[in-house]
Design the sequence.
């Protein structure tokens, strides 16, 4: 057993418009027993041509480049070579660039100040089908999720339901009567009816048929 390590070296293409940067990256990667650099490209257009010719596993892609920038190249790779993983390696780690490249199809994002061991770890992760983000990028995503969460609660009425209301919604959708639910949850029928009225009001549901349809669409129950 090899502990999950790839049996063959991970084939790489390094894309950066600065020759000295490419040389430095390649020199670092040659020190790793897990990777082999198949080629280098100075812009997105060259990268697409070399991917077609060399069939790498992972492309290390800069963002700001002449002729064709990294963002456009990532979109083309995602469309035409979906099995090739793109790991962005750049000095531009601001929010705008991060979300643009992820939306375009990159599966990893590392800034150029990272240590070589972190770079190899990122390459290994995306090669295996995982995503990989440098700590700063991960913080962006966490911050944005936290900021967006109150808005999502307002947009999705299901998130406004209490745990008890969700429980009763599921039981109602499964076909249980008010009295059966009261017995199962050790509540009075009147209390169950109160929860039922509130949850249907929050979901803007008017009858049991609509309730069942909603629960099926939401994946709460299966037919």
Sequence:
């Amino acid at each position: 057993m090899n502990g999950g390590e790839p049996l063959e070296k991970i084939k790489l293409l390094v894309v950066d418009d600065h020759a000295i940067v490419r040389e430095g990256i390649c020199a670092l990667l040659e020190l790793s027993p897990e990777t082999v650099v198949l080629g280098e490209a100075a812009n997105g257009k060259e990268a697409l041509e070399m991917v077609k010719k060399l069939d790498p596993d992972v492309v290390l892609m800069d963002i700001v480049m002449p002729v064709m920038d990294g963002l456009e190249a990532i979109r083309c790779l995602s469309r035409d070579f979906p099995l090739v993983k793109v790991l962005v390696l750049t000095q531009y780690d601001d929010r705008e660039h991060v979300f643009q490249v992820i939306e375009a199809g990159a599966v990893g994002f590392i800034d150029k100040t990272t240590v070589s061991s972190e770079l190899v770890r990122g390459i290994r992760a995306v090669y295996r089908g995982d995503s990989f983000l440098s700590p700063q990028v991960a913080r962006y995503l966490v911050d944005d999720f936290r900021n967006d969460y109150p808005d999502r609660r307002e947009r999705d009425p299901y998130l406004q339901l209490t745990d008890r209301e969700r429980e009763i919604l599921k039981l109602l959708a499964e076909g249980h009567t008010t009295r059966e639910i009261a017995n199962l949850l050790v509540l009075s029928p009147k209390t169950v009816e109160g929860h039922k009225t509130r949850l249907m009001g929050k979901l803007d549901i008017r009858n049991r048929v609509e309730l069942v349809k909603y629960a099926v669409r939401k994946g709460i129950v299966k037919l």
Notes: The beta strands are 10-15, 35-41, 58-61, 85-90, 108-111, 132-133. The first helix runs from residue 19 to 30.
